[in-house]
Design goal:
4-stranded parallel β-sheet; two-stranded antiparallel ribbon; 9 helices; globular
Length: 230
């Protein structure tokens, strides 16, 4: 079966990305997931983000360029909001509440952030990877069990296996569960609760993850990340 997601996968494979060495792409897993998502499209579901953006996180941040990793759950379920990067928002309405909480922790946080497109971070070595690369309109979490999670696990392991140090920013229980995949003798972990306002423990505000990540990188001989978006 062919479809827009299978076509996007084929284009990504032609890119020659270092991520293509992951078992997810070299075996049948990627084709199986793409076929399942394309089946939903054939059934009338609106799948997000646009096909050309599904693999943006890997396309914009090659394995060799990763300095930091931020893991999300899945794309925003409203058309036009997501661009394939975890937490990144390109919609025209107010910024999502979780993203506002995240941006408030920036070293030079604007009083009222107006930009939610995190593409500059991806281009500077921040892997912004969701656990599921697709979602359905109005159905958050719809594709979390479709098989995308294997890609997330393998990507985390691939960064962990590198000699070059990187720092993992793990926010919330799902992200923190992947700490077991990380070699902490070579890489850093900055953990906190999830930035969602629904997090009753409120253990993300004030955690200063970006300053902590940069401090770890600098201590291990890696140039700090420029987290500015403007």
């Amino acid at each position: 079966m062919t479809g827009p997601v299978a076509d996007a996968l084929a284009r990504f494979r032609r890119s020659g990305s270092p991520w293509l060495d992951l078992p997810f792409f070299s075996g049948d897993a990627a084709d199986t997931v793409a076929a399942r998502v394309d089946e939903r499209i054939a059934q009338g579901a609106t799948v997000l983000p646009a096909p050309e953006n599904i693999f943006n996180a890997l396309a914009l941040t090659p394995l060799t360029a990763v300095k930091a990793v931020i893991l999300g759950q899945d794309p925003y379920p409203t058309p036009g909001d997501a661009n394939g990067l975890a937490f990144s928002y390109v919609g025209s309405r107010r910024l999502p509440a979780s993203l506002k909480v995240i941006l408030a922790e920036l070293p030079e946080a604007p009083a009222e952030p107006s930009r939610g497109d995190l593409t500059p971070w991806a281009e500077r070595g921040v892997l912004l990877l969701n656990t599921a690369l697709t979602v359905e309109k109005g159905k958050s979490g719809a594709h979390l069990r479709y098989g995308w999670a294997a890609l997330t696990d393998q990507a985390v392991e691939a960064v962990s296996q590198r000699e070059a140090p990187a720092v993992f920013l793990l926010w919330g229980a799902q992200a923190r569960a992947r700490a077991a995949l990380i070699d902490t003798t070579r890489h850093g972990i900055v953990e906190s609760g999830h930035p969602s306002p629904l997090n009753r423990q409120r253990d993300f505000p004030g955690s200063q993850p970006f300053a902590a990540a940069n401090a770890w990188l600098a201590a291990h001989g890696v140039a700090p990340i420029d987290w500015r978006l403007d």
